[in-house]
Design goal:
The chain is α/β, with parallel strands linked by helices and about 160 residues long. Helices cover about 40% and strands about 20% of the residues. The chain has a single domain, classed as Maf protein. The protein has a five-stranded mixed beta sheet with strand order 2-1-3-4-5, with helices on both faces.
């Protein structure tokens, strides 16, 4: 079951954790869902909206080689985005999202609706990645990705 942003904030507070976000295709939807809740400043340390490849490089330290060889929409990029958000913040945990929201931009190998997530932990230095395919229009895909991001956080905290 999907936790509400308020419930996610309560979970993070109860564990004394600060969160950093690195969003591409969701364009800040995850951060918005969290900051809509009073008290979110206790857990949301910062958020990056790194829509362009250059912003992924500049703000998060994503490798040019990763972007050239794997593409912006890849598990490797999601991993580097999460790691970069964690390394460039005071957060304990960082979540990243990168994908193709459409309606254009999809290919046979990487169709519209393909989204990758990264989850990095400061304490263990572990980074997990997740792949998900969503359907619907651009708003639907972005909304589903935002909701799934909260699901990931809840399941791995």
């Amino acid at each position: 079951m999907l936790v509400s942003p308020s419930e996610l904030i309560d979970i993070l507070k109860s564990q004394g954790l600060k969160l950093a976000l690195a969003e591409s295709c969701t364009g800040g939807m995850i951060a918005t869902s969290i900051t809509d809740v009073p008290g979110s400043s206790a857990v949301l340390e910062r958020g990056y909206i790194t829509y362009s490849n250059q912003s992924k490089i500049d703000c998060l330290g994503v490798s040019k080689a990763t972007l050239a060889n794997q593409g912006a929409v890849s598990a490797e990029t999601a991993k580097e985005m999460a790691t970069g958000a964690l390394n460039n913040s005071q957060a304990d945990i960082a979540l990243s999202v990168t994908g193709i929201a459409g309606p254009d931009g999809g290919t046979t190998e990487k169709p519209v609706g393909l989204v990758y997530f990264g989850l990095a932990y400061k304490k263990s230095k572990e980074v997990k990645t997740f792949e998900k395919r969503f359907s619907g229009d651009r708003f639907d895909i972005r909304s589903q990705a935002s909701n799934f991001a909260r699901f990931i956080l809840e399941k791995h905290l």
